[in-house]
Structure formats: structure tokens, C-alpha cells
Amino acid sequence: MPASSSEIWLALIVGTTAIVVLGSILFGSILYSQRRFIYSQREKVRILEEGERQLKESYDKIRQLAAHIQSVREEERTSIAREIHDELGQLLTVLKMDLALFQKKVEQFSFQNTYKEAIQDIQSMSDVIDTTIKTVRTIATELRPEILDELGLRDAIEWEIQRFQNRLGIKCTFNTNVEDLDLDKDSSTALFRILQETLTNVARHSGAAAVDVTFEQKNHKLMLQVADNGKGITDQKSSQERSFGILGMRERVLLIGGEFTINGENGKGTTVTVKVPLISSSTVTPHTDSNIQWDLNRQISE
């Protein structure tokens, strides 16, 4: 009986030990698997975060490159516009004066049979020169309007709206509470180009009869808003026919730290809104009275 009891105890001890060992092995395996799983997940998270960081760095570099390209492009536009206006424009003007002088000399030989034909040819040449001079001025203006650099953004906005109305016959209203504006060149150029792109979209796509342009200072921000009464842009149209233009405007705004929104309602028009923060180097003087508002119905020369 004692021997039998000893065997039982031995069997219990061996069994318990085996269970403990097996349990420890199983627990160790589970713990090891969990640790490997956790490490694997952490490694995946680290890889994803690293990829996201690299992607963000690449995107920032692309954006910086885009800003540099925009800046170089505007400088090149300014240089080309100046060369066209100063060099080619002056040469054409001199040619026009020489042709007028030549016409007076020809008129002295009125007894010649070819007098009338010569005068007609000279007049035809003069008309061609006038057209060329006008074309040169238009090209130079499209490249870089002098008014933007000489008189500033507000006057340039008003001038562009007037030009748009005179060219297309779409009634424009300009609302502003800004009198004097000292804004950095990049922000001024971006806002002006956005205005041009928006008006171009109005002319091409909207079928609008009227446009309201608002340029105001609100809560330490400059707001430029262009609202038309046309067909109204839909989400589908926004992602198709105008997508590149809208993407370009959005990128211009982001490059200067601003906000860009576009809203359209079918049959009721489209509104484009840009808000740019005023930094310490930028100053705006609101008009002392109420908002300036007028219809741009006077004609200007192209």
C-alpha cells in the first residue's frame, strides 16, 4: 500500500511537472507570438509613418518648386512685356512717324500718275502698323499689366473688371472697402491671376449676364469674391472641364497661405472666394466711409 501511494504521488508530481512545463511552453509560445505580432504591427506603423513623412516632404518640395516656377514665370512675363512695350512698341511708333513723313513727301509729287496709288498703299501700311501697335500693347498687357506694379492690386482689379466688361458686354459690379493696400508681390500677383482665371471661366462656361466682384478686408484677411449669375458649376463639371483651372487657382492660394472655395448652384450661378491672411508686412487701409460700390459702365482703351 505505501509503495502504491508513493507511485501515485510520483505520478502526480511527474504529471503536474509535465503540465506546468507544457503550460509554460504554451504560454511562452503565445507570449512570443504576441510580441512578434506587436513588433510586426509597430514596424508596419513605423514604415507607414516613414512613408507618409517622405511623401509629405516630397509634396512640400513639389509645392516649393511650383512656387519657384510661378515666381520665375511672373518675372519672365514682366521682362518680356517690358521688352515688347519698350523696344518693339517704340520701333513701331518710329516707323509710323517715318511713314507719315514719307506720305507728306509723296503728296508733293501729285502730278505723277502713281500719286493716288502710292497714297493708298501708304495708308494701308499705316493701318497695318496701327493694328500691330495695338496688338503689341495687348500682348504686353496680357503678359504683365503695368497697372499692377505701378498702382497696386486694387486698381488693377478694377481695371481688369472694366476691361472684361468692355470686351464682352457682361455687366460688372465692383464692391470694396479697401483704399490703400501694401501687399507683397507674390500675393498680389496670385490674387490678380485668380481674378483673371475666374473671369475667363465666366466668359467661357457660365453664360452669365452679370458678375459681382467683392474685394474687402475682413477679420485680418483680404477676401476676393467673384459671383456670377450663370448656369452654376456642378461637382461633375468641376472635376472635368474646369478641373485644371480650378486646381491651378487652388494651388496659387495654398502657396500664399490662403483659402479657396468654389460653390455653384444649378441655374443660379457660381461663386469663387479667396481669403488671404494679412501678415505684418502687409497693410490695408479701409475706406473711411461705407463700402465703395459702383457699376463699371465707363469705357476704357485697350
Question: Which class do the helix and strand fractions yield?
Answer: alpha+beta
**How many whole angstroms does the radius of gyration measure?**
36 Å
Which topology of the largest domain does CATH recognise?
Heat Shock Protein 90
What is the CATH architecture term of the largest domain? Answer: 2-Layer Sandwich
Straight-line distance between termini = 124 Å
- For the largest sheet, list the strands in their spatial order: 5-6-4-3-1-8
Characterize the largest beta sheet: strand count, sense, and whether it forms a barrel: 6 strands, mixed
Total helical elements: 7
Low-confidence stretches: 286-294, 296-302
- The top level CATH class name of the largest domain: Alpha Beta
SSE string, helices as H and strands as E = HHHHEEHEEHHEEEE
Instruction: Count all strands and give the number.
Output: 8
CATH superfamily of the largest domain: Histidine kinase-like ATPase, C-terminal domain
Please indicate the percent range of residues in DSSP E strands (runs of 2 or more): 15-25%
* Helical fraction: 55-70%
Shape: elongated
